Amino acid sequence: MPPASDEVTIESISPYGVARSTVSEKPLSAEDIRKVDAYFRASLYLCLGMLYLKKNPLLKNPLSKEDLKARLLGHWGSDAGQAFTWIHFNRLIKKYDLDVLFVSGPGHGAPAVLSQAYLEGTYSEVYPDMTEDEEGMRRFFKQFSFPGGVGSHATPETPGSIHEGGELGYSISHAFGTVFDNPNLISLTMVGDGEAETGPLATSWHSTKFLNPITDGAVLPVLHLNGYKINNPTILARISHKELENLFLGYGWTPYFVEGSDLESMHQAMASTLEHCVLEIRKYQKQARDSGKAFRPRWPMIVLRSPKGWTAPRKVDGKLLEGFWRAHQIPIPDVFTNADHLKVLENWMRSYKPEEVFDKSGGLIPELKELPPTGTSRMSANPVGNGGLLRKPLDMPDFRKYALEKIEPGVSNLGTMTNMAKFLRDIVGKNMHNFRVFGPDETESNKLGEIYKAGKKVWLGEYFEEDEDGGNLAYEGRVMEMLSEHTCEGWMEGYILSGRHGLLNSYEPFIHIIDSMVNQHCKWIEKCNEVEWRVKISSLNILLTATVWRQDHNGFTHQDPGFLDVIANKSPEVVRIYLPPDGNCLLSVTDHCLRSTNYVNVIVADKQDHLQFLSMEDAIAHCTKGLGIWDCFSNDQGFDPDLVMASCGDVPTLESLAATALLRELLPELKIRFVNVVDLFKLISEVDHPHGLSDREYTSIFTADRPVIFNFHSYPFLIHRLTYKRPGSLNLHVRGYKEKGNIDTPLELAIRNQTDRYSLAMDAIDRIPTLHNKGAGVREKLMNMQIAAKAEAYENGIDPIFIRDWRWPFPQEKKGTLQTLVGK
Fold this sequence. Notes:
The protein is α/β, with parallel strands linked by helices. It contains 26 helices and 25 strands. It has three domains: about 375 residues, 3-Layer(aba) Sandwich (Rossmann fold), CATH 3.40.50.970; about 210 residues, Rossmann fold (3-Layer(aba) Sandwich); about 200 residues, 3-Layer(aba) Sandwich (Rossmann fold), CATH 3.40.50. GO terms for molecular function: aldehyde-lyase activity.
């Protein structure tokens, strides 16, 4: 079919021919081009060797099937463009003494990155058995996508990598995360044109609106248009030059184009374009830093259009290879069964002239060895790529000084989140260059506005006069807000991966947007734990608030606590979940999480005012244990309990306490033990989780033979899943969110899901064998109370005052450091 517009022609999108570029200077001499092209050939030879070879690495003998790996795995399509860009930037690192990190965005682009690490010597330094000789090269080839070796992404085993690319879409946001508060760093970022079709990548182009040229470094994106994904053309490769240019002008960038396939002219064009971009970046930074006035430049970016699988044979058996989707993965997959194709592969590999670029022993020849930078100036050895090397602990104030004082357990009603915000405010104030708070336009809504007194919201966009009235905007802020959870999460990941600290706060129901991002980060950390030279980084801390049980104004769409299920699926070595029941526990947990390393920590705490239960001293003890009996609300001291009432989460704890109070008032002979869980993974067996309790410890809390009514913040099945091995697990009856909701009052929502005080109390009566008919009258009374409370909410649009202002009704007295119940 003809193109939809005369403007879109084959000529305007072809990746072939002599270079066409925005910048026309020619900085390379003929000798420079000869050397850089030889280095490029060495790189591509290594890339192809990784895909195919397990023996005969220098092709000293004719290629045979015995030289090939039994399974051919990996991707070829983006390797040439990535290696091409890396090589040309090496010249600029040396010329201008630059600090540069390479971020590989295209999926399965590891051969390009690994080849550079090997040629620069970094790989042999990190892995001494991968020597720069024939035997080392053989091992280097064999390990790629091979059992016991390394994957086809830029995995944690890859020197200089912070971005695996296992899932597409995050290269730009990760890169920006690395350059915030890193004024000398340039993150050179390859963006695959398939990756460029993802939502996260599309929003991340806006990151320039948050980049301060005084205090931050710069990201130089290279959009690699090679035309095809696995089996389809890519969108941005099939629009006209003008449309593509306008797209990036609209995003606020200055695009520069390098297009073609002729190597001599492409070397010259890429060298001049990259140098022009580096000088432009330096110009903007100098202008801002000399004047002390921040502004938002139209930062440079590059569109590199080259053939898919560049330098492969154009056709094999009359079918397109180079420049087509067949070059995406293993370009010639049938070399075991087709002798002619095996010969095509051998001729292709020999076309890179390995005998010219490697000496007889297999080492890179001296004149090429001199081309890349040395030491930590090598992109493969940049310390930012192993951010734990640069990490410094936070300067933390003593969280105990922010304690909610004079707590009357179950009576004091105070602002849990607004108080914790003061703690975060002072952490920000003490760490103005290595700690940031991230979130999608919700910091104020989440009752964390106190933070703005230490560090306002970063904003490099336009300022209006009305922004002075509560806008909290600043060029040099500490809070990063953009209504894209993907971008905020990507920024924070890049920030902590490069050695800093952060906290992301988000509404609980919409954190699912970044499920897969967190999944990938968990996998990254777990693999890093197995790589000895990887130094631990700060934990990724996620604070979930605006929780499911307090969404009476937003309704069903805002009611989903299922992120905890996602996290619980991850390795117990790298994830932690905390549900602090009150303000002092929240302070203790937050302090612990911000000090930790190599975890994904999830804290769930509602932002509204809540009943408080523990003094700071008791909160520290409770959080240290992770769960425990709350003696002050129990009356089973010295007796076997008839019932265990357990809770996990702030609102479920309130309702469980209210249920306990009802039972004790209406059935005073009952002996009830009250248990609260703050560290969710304490429920798992110690066999399966490092935080897990032994069965003996577990039964000392929950018993093995008494009914347990467990009120849980999230979906009930998660608790059953965590405790299925436990003694007495059949006595555990979990109540939680059952996917029932609407524009409900808090009590009505709880009733829908049977987590309210009346449902819990009735459930308890049903589970205690000794009550039987004896408890029937009480059960009927509880049912009537529930109906009346619900009817009043329907009538008045608000829960009854006795629900809203409920307090623990029994008097207390001091016993040691704990509040202990003595009776009605």
